[in-house]
Amino acid sequence: MILAALIFIPIAGGLLSWMADHWHPGAAKWLALITAGIEFVLAIWLWLQSASAMALPAHGGWLAETRAEWIPRFGVSFHLAVDGISLILVVLTAFLGIVSVACSWTEIQKRTGFFYFNLLWTVAGAVGVFLALDLFLFFFFWELMLVPMYFLIGIWGHENRQYASIKFFIFAQGSGMFMLVAILALVFVHYRSTGVLTFDYFDLLNATLSPSTELWIMLGFFIAFAVKTPIVPFHTWLPDAHTEAPTAGSVILAGVLLKTGAYGLLRFIVPLFPEAAAYFAPVAMVLGATGVLYGAFLAFAQTDFKRLVAYTSVSHLGFAVLGIFAWNPWSLGGAVMQMIAHGISTGALFVIAGILQERTHTRDMQRFEGLWSVMPRLAAMGLFFAIAALGLPGMGNFVGEFLVLMGLSSSSSVLASVATVVFVASVVYALALVQKTFHGENKHGWQLHDLSGREMATLFSMAAITLWLGLYPQPVLNAAPNTANSPPAIAVTRH
Amino acid sequence: MPSALHSDSLHLDLAVLSPLILLAAAAVVVMLAAAFYRHPRPVMILTLAGLVVSFTALFLPFLPQGIAGTASPQVTTLLVLDHYALFFIGLIVVATFVVAVLCYRYFGGGESRHEALYILLLLAALGGGVLVASSHFASFLLGLELLSISLFALIAYPRFTEHPLEAGIKYLILAGFSSGLLLFGMALVYAQLGTMQFVKIGTMLAAPEGALELYGLAGLALIVTGVGFKLALVPFHMWTPDVYEGAPAPITAFIATVSKGAMLVLLLRYFLMAGGHQSQSITFALSLVAVATILVGNLLALLQNNIKRILAYSSIAQLGYLLVGFLAFDQLAIEAIAYFLTAYFVTMLGAFGVVTVLSEGFNGSAGEFHGAAERDSDRLADYAGLFWHRPWLAGVFTAMLLSLAGIPLTMGFIGKFYIVTAGVEASLWMPVITLVIGSIIGLFYYMRIIAVMYASGPEAAGEAIMLRVAAPSFAESATLAALVLLLVWLGIFPAQLIDVLGGTVADLT
User: Fold this and answer.
1) ipTM, 2 decimals?
2) Which among A143, A166, A180 has CB closest to B407?
């Protein structure tokens, strides 16, 4: 029941804040905040229910499950379940939900009710994606979360919002169609061998596929996940969408939507298609390593604050892809850690970008410079999260990247050493970000308010989580898939 | 039929036929009423009542000890009112009901003399009903002509305005042409097999030595072509955008749904009963047509700036998706077609319903046309910023467009899912991949309309916009609200409808 509640609370909250806006202007944001708060408390409560508060059950250790008939004709059921990895992503989603309500508090002035409706429905869709264990249901939520996100970008976005929102929608939706065909192919292969028409994850885990079928079906899933994660060369929607979205949209996009892609790789690609994934892993890892470097280099070349941060996402998620396809305990732990840490630190950088834009009405770093003297608190926070993004030890991102590289070096030392180069590139872009924006003299004569209490609270809590992830990462690492009980050890098939 | 029971069986036959008879009777009653008391309001109410009565009669066979409970659904060799026919007659009647409601205000409400319109609508619905129930070439042609002839008049109903007249003439020529092809095709099939009954054609072809010779094959090809014109399949689609654009918006909704739907249902029955799928070459041609229809429909829609034209091309593409199900052709595929068609009906009625409600319409009859609109509010620019000043209508339109695009929470999603399922099950990879590519292209023009509606405001249009100022009438709002609720409800909980369709299709195969 609690799992269904996790999905329906933001849905109901979204409808409520939309309506509330008509009765009492200004009520929408409070309702949205309360809804996101309840969601967060519920997720944390679920976490505390697990055996030990600090040890999440591993991948496949199901904490809670709900199942109800939905469309019996197709063997589709409303099947939700939560294990460690789902739970931690739901907690992340709920937390970023609160953050994105908080950072829209004064930014969103028009149509607030409809804004929070879309925001909460995106959250609901993402939570649904993380919880669904029926492939139809998964696809349903996968597509569903795109529509409100499209509106977030298309209505409240910046200058080029129409282009960015349509591009985002077509990329995500189009790749999803390939996944739909792949899901159906998988279901019917299973149906032909067993006579049971079902979309259930557990049943389909046992489907026997011929190697070529398995590869084709896996590629159908892979395209959808590769667009979302994003994996180079399917990333071109990302810089546009992240840059043009309102702050809350960027936070949710970077923190949550990208994770649905990586989650899909982890939950579906490898367990459902172990052989094909092993066969395909070298390609995927090369793409991942390319993304790591390419994202970092392009980030360095940007002058738009948000665009720079957007490209760092390509780089960071490249590590998650590397970790997932290397498929050993270290790399998987690293991939999960990278997903969570990236969600928090990049989210925080987007919040900072939003704060800057709200005050200066620009994102162009050439027009900043010397903001440290004007806004010391914001600048300090900016420095903190830039350093987190470059992977300084003691922060979450470092743990993730380090573990991924450690795991990767056992399967492919070449790729590991290539990916290590990014530590140089990321230092360059992170410090360039700080220098261009905050250091130097205030030549443009900016006179700006420093952070308000609300903004401080938001950024402080994100900083605290980043530090916690860096200093005591074990709970998150426990949530990573346990390779011991996953079907084949695909690392073995490579030298 | 045994002759001893002749009068009894006649009695039963009439009971079975009652939905169609009641539709015909309603047309007569409405005509007499209009002759004696020319006022549109009572005429419209009578029309709606006739449709409701005829809809109720559809449930006669389901009564436990019903008068028609024991009758065979086959009434003479011409018509068969099995569950399949009953379901689609129901769909047609409901669609006609919606169109009639939408027509009232659009054609001037109580002030104008548009009573004849309702007679024509009832006759067109009757034609559609005969089509979906026909099991013989004669009834096929009868239904088709009844439908087409009513439609000429309906399309050109605002006869002092240029566009509807032009559209009416285009439709007249097209319909004449396609009827000619159909007739010739039927004659050729008859020339080879000597029968016009679908079932007999089927049994003769199913016999070991029975296969279509050149005559029969050419006949079948001509029939498919004739139907293809009506369904606007590529390459027989040229007329669609012009007629859709020119026809009054509620009539466009009727053409898009009832006229196309009835033809498709008939084609499906013909293929099922008369074994059309046994001909490899026809199946192959149909798969080429399906691929071409999906691609051309979606690609041409990209270039349009007129909502009715975009919807016209969109409906071409949707028929292409339906053909994918048609090619799969098993129990699941027929269910898929039935579901998709239902979703298509709801969606198209909703989409054109919004266009209707936003358009000024043609008020007044002969000589009273001054002050009436020259065209419907159908330019993309008319919809700029619609969401900010007409949120509910924009919301309804958004829901319909998302359904056409196949986004979850709508019937369109389940429908497309159903069709893809049927295609994958039958391993029709080429059409399925085309469908996927087509729907990706389709996203672009659906999102384009949505983006325009949610753009900053009316000033975003940059040109004069033409939009009805008055708020929608209660009947219009209620109709659109009902369509949206249906769209979302059956999009989230499709199981009930699927059960009904399962039963409907089961007695067909």
Assistant:
1) 0.89
2) A143
